[in-house]
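[Q] Does anyone have a clean structure-token version of this?
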Amino acid sequence: MTKRKAHAAVLFSGGTDSTLAAAQMLDECDKVTLLTFDPGYLLFLDNTKVHAEALQERFGADRVEHRIIDIRHFIKDILGVDVGADLREYGFNMSSLVCLGCRLSMHAFAIYWCLQNEVPYLADGSIRAQSTIPEQMESVIRRNRRFYSQEYGIRHFSPIYEESESDQRLDELGITGKKKLKRQFILFDTQATCVFGVPADVYGRLFYGKLVGKTRELDSEQYCAEKYPVMQDVILKAIEEHGIDVPTAAERLREIRREDGDLGESQGPGGEAAFDNALNPEIAAR
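[A] Here you go.
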């Protein structure tokens, strides 16, 4: 990107991945808003303030804003819209797909927030090393990215997807004074603990990620296809309460991107080009 962006939002867990993603977006943007979401089942949510304050100290409080937002209503209407049907369809694989549903709910609120605040860029800390969980699979990220751009004019980034040592990178940048944060498990110094995340991660690593063949790909594709219309309905209902027309707001985001010279999906950190050499042809064709 040849021109600095004015403002980007980052899905911010407070962990080393989302913190490094935020730091990289701050190299490209004048301001970043860290969106930390409370879905109702996270413990120790205030831990997220540790790295948020470190980013503010490093880049300036005028450039880094941190918001902790209750999104239980979005979780209920997207992830929890029909739990019984999801369990009947996906069975025990919902142990991992629940994380995908949670991420889609968070993205839905982030889209709503971006439309409302005229912020056309959204990033997260997805990494390849955690792609055993469906939400961080290459194919899912690409599918989501196309949906957000086509429907809402939002450009999505995964700027550190190939990074596996984000804790060391943060230490080198002087953002954190603690090393080996990536080795923490269940209880963390800088992020919340998710009651569903631990079993989902274990199930994904031991079974769902490697032993089910194409099932994980097919499940994820179907699950996203089922949730996108639900997300659209929830976003539409929320944004219309503010008297905002979604097509008009989406076109405004595209206009801002055009003004920034951001015209192609292959540009920028963690854009489509980040996956082009890594995806196998079968996945890339989807």
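[Q] Thanks! Anything notable?
[A] The radius of gyration is 18 Å.
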